[in-house]
Amino acid sequence: MDFKEKKRLSKLGLGNKLLILFMVALVAACAWVISLIVKNGIKQAWADNWGKILLIVFAELIIFFIGIGLVYITSKQLGVKYRALGILCGWIPVVNLVVLTKIIGVTGAECSFEKKKQKLNEKRADKQICRTKYPILMVHGVFFRDFQNFNYWGRVPAELERNGATIYYGEHQSAASVADSAEELADRIKSIVRETGCDKVNVIAHSKGGLDTKYAIAKLGMDKHVASLTTINTPHTGCEFADYLLGKAPEGLKDKVAKAYNSALKKLGDKNPSFIAAVSDLTASACRRLNNEIGGFDYRRHGVYTQSVGSWMKEAGSGAFPLNMSYLLVKHFDGPNDGLVGEPSFHFGENYTFLENKKSKRGISHGDMIDLNRENIPGFDVREFYVQLVADLKKKGL
């Protein structure tokens, strides 16, 4: 862990301790004042102890504002919600203490969790457990790009690099047909091979990125440059709910949405985005055609190790917007799902892992699998999951 992160955790820990001190001192001060009032009455208690009371109030305010300032500035887990609640409820008696207790809990858990990760990474630093034979190519899904200042994969790549991995990104458009995205990925793979002389890459692909990479391997000759393909929450057999939505939505509405999306993404760097082509290739009917086209390709015979991962949200409340809205619709058509993709569609390759988060009622959404919200999820450490996944590739000699 770098010096900047250690400094952040140090400040976060100090802020958390100051808020705990504030709460303890507040309880003690209230108990003391109440005892004075019971013994001497309000007027006499104030007359005899006003200086001490003001001093306590002043000291408490200093402790509180330093503590809350530190956690607000340094915490990555509080998010907008708890920061806003803290400000809005700060002057409401009792409610403010309830919110403050939650803030203390969240920041304390964050500090403890991150320090444990720090110790774990320091302990295994010499082993470089993610230093695979071939570099890792991380391929994004639909409607996202590989932005420099907002990593599609959240905190995952940095964690892999701390443990020895060499990371590259697909750098393809956010929305295009599977065939067109595969062309871009094939060019990207060839450029990495030329640049590094590595011969092959290990691909970790999320969502539609898995379909794009399969096509590049099976149809565009990338089998000679791909050592392994790991698909993450990829709809290998498509999404039935996508067929339903495209079939029911008026043409005018689809054209309007597509035009707005394509226009916005052009401004963000896409050369020729196609919202409709991308969505259409995620339908169950389109994936059946794709699987018929490339289904006979024998990845193992061509020397490509393949595996897949899927996850389950459990309930609508487990995911952030918009997955909390789509979960029930997907459940109706595709059964247990991650908010976008049904569990039966995840299966692919020689090895399949289904993540259920048995230690918590909270599920693991489509977005959680790429650390979209940078959230420390109880029962599922997304960063460590990828560390162990890549470490396993290294053990396989890939």
Q: Your description of this structure?
A:
The two termini are 26 Å apart. The protein is of the alpha/beta class and 398 residues long. It contains 13 helices and six strands. It has helices at 3-40, 42-74, 79-88, 95-123, 156-162, 178-196, 208-219, 240-248, 251-267, 275-280, 284-294, 323-334, 382-395; strands at 136-139, 167-169, 201-206, 226-232, 305-311, 351-355. Strands 2-1-3-4-5-6 form a six-stranded parallel sheet, sandwiched between helices. It is 55% helix and 8% strand. The longest helix is centred in the N-terminal third of the chain and has 38 residues, at 3-40. It is elongated, with a radius of gyration of 26 Å.
What is the compact description of this entry?
The protein has 398 residues and is of the alpha/beta class.
Q: Quick one: how many beta strands?
A: 6
Q: Low-confidence parts, pLDDT < 50 over ≥5 residues?
A: none
The oligomeric status of these chains comes to single chain
Radius of gyration of CA atoms, rounded to a whole number: 26 Å
Record the strand order, biggest sheet. 2-1-3-4-5-6
Number of helices: 13
Rounded to the nearest angstrom, the distance between the terminal CA atoms is: 26 Å
Question: Helices and strands: which structural class?
Answer: alpha/beta
Mean residue pLDDT: 91
| Biggest beta-sheet profile | 6 strands, parallel
Strand content: 5-15%
Helicity, as a percent range: 40-55%
Principal-axes geometry comes out as elongated
Give the H and E element order: HHHHEHEHEHEHHHHEHEH
